[in-house]
Amino acid sequence: MTTDSEVFQQLLDTVERFVRERLRPRELEVAMSDAVPADVVQEMRDLGLFGLAISEEFGGLELNLSEEVQIAFRLGGTSPAFRSVIGTNNGIGSQGIVIDGTSEQKAYYLPRLASGELIGSFCLTEPEAGSDAGSLRTSAKRDGDYFLISGTKRFITNAPQAGVFTVFARTDPESKTASGVTAFIVDAHLPGITLGKKDHKMGQQGAHTCDVIFDNVRVSVTAIIGGERNLGKGFATAMKVLDRGRLTIAAVCVGIAERLIADSLAYAMERKQFGQPIAEFQLVQAMLADMRTECFAAQCMVEETARRFDNGKMIATEAACCKMFASEMVGRVADKAVQIHGGAGYVADYGIERFYRDVRLFRIYEGTTQIQQLVIARNMTRDARRQSANI
Ligand code: COS
Fold first, then answer.
1. Beta bridge partners of 276
2. Which domain range does residue 330 map to?
């Protein structure tokens, strides 16, 4: 897929049409019913949307990151609950296996994740371990060729639908930090796994999260992502998965900002006050111009970071910059969209207030803005120390 630009352009056109004709008309229905309809999920499967980032060998579309962010820009043109359906299979729910899995793990799980037959979820966060993910308490105690996993994971996206979990658990009971954490692939139907009730969220109705509780869940050593040589190395897997995930979230933020800008511009050109469209007023123009500028900046950041990744560069710092800037940007854009729409922005009919609530999550999940700041600054000081050591 990576070289055939004509085929890729067709895919982009198809996704754009799908968003415009099939998803946007059903935004309200999804918000009201708190569910993405089964026929829409099936259409997503038919379009191959569950396997964007999985190689063709395993039935995916094998997009590179530059291509994947273009898809995310377009999927951002509608309620984020739709993208969330495919979000974990393309991101945190599959990438642990894609990046660090053994060939057996890839062959077993990836085809079903790519087809959407199986939903993957990422179990890192716990009641007492959110931003400080390295302090997680879920334990995996060795029992011969098996491990017994016990602990509670919180706010797990797509857990109610999941068939497989990537679970981070402490295999070294002596360690209290990121070292001694191992990543496991765990079948969601194993005895000892229960789900909490669905979280009642501020926004993104139709996208579901809940607790996942593990009570002495028995898994083989072959469930360690990457095999036994990766015992105790699961935290690095989590961080690599999140680097990629953070860039994709940033791309979705750009897509949603584009949608809000388009809606705000259309409204401002049609809505008349003082005898003329409000788009003619300079104070409204200033808001529109700020929205366009910030969104363009985020788009450029995302595209450049994806390009660097595709050229084999480490992108931990840039992905954190993108996640922080784009998620804060879309928050400001959504706020201005409400302002431009005035009363119509505050009532539910226009959907603007829904986006305003939906986008609030982007500054929190897959690492808060404050965690992105910490990652960026830590990497800056680390690089500076390395540079001065070389001189
Ligand atoms: N790629 C590869 N490896 C990485 C990495 C990356 N981007 N970032 C860190 N690592 C490795 C480190 O090299 C280190 O390995 P060694 O011990 O072998 O050197 C290990 O992971 C631990 O890293 P670090 O010391 O930086 O861990 P900390 O506990 O200090 O935590 C933060 C770092 C705060 C950045 C991390 O806990 C984090 O990202 N928290 C937010 C979690 C999050 O996003 N949660 C959202 C839930 S998922 S939807």
1. 273
2. 236-390
Tokens 């001189």 label which residue? 391
The verdict on 132 and 109 lying in the same domain is no
Sorted by sequence, the CB contacts under 8 Å of residue 80 that are 6+ apart come out as 204, 207, 252, 256, 358, 359, 361
Answer yes or no: 366 catalytic.
Answer: yes
pLDDT at 3: 56
* Whether the CB of 319 sits within 6 Å of ligand 1: no
Q: Residue 230 carries which DSSP code?
A: G
DSSP one-letter code for 58: G
- Phi–psi pair at 120, nearest 5 degrees: -105, 140
Same domain, 198 and 275: no
**Contact 63 CB / ligand 1 (< 6 Å):** no
Catalytic site residue from 67, 258, 353, 366: 366
Closest C-alpha to ligand 1, atom 28: 134
Q: Which of 202, 231, 260 is the last residue of a domain?
A: 231
The length of the chain is: 391
What is this structure's pTM? 0.96
CA-CA distance, 137 to 150, in Å (whole number)? 9
275 and 379 in a common domain: yes
HSE (side-chain half, CA atoms, 13 Å) at 265? 11
Q: Of the candidates 212, 231, 250, which is a domain's last residue?
A: 231
Q: What is the pLDDT of residues 294-317, one digit of tens each?
A: 999 999 999 999 999 999 999 999
279-304: average pLDDT: 98
328 shares a domain with 284: yes
**pLDDT-above-70 percentage for the chain:** 99
Hey, is 129 helix, strand or coil?
A: strand
Q: Are 67 and 202 found together in one domain?
A: no
Does 157 lie in the same domain as 24? no
Pocket test for ligand 1, best of 239, 318, 324, 380 (most atoms within 8 A of CB): 239
386 & 247 share domain: yes
Same domain, 360 and 386: yes
Cα 179 to ligand 1 centre (Å) = 10
Query: pLDDT value at position 2?
Result: 52
Evaluate: CB of 134 within 6 angstroms of ligand 1: yes
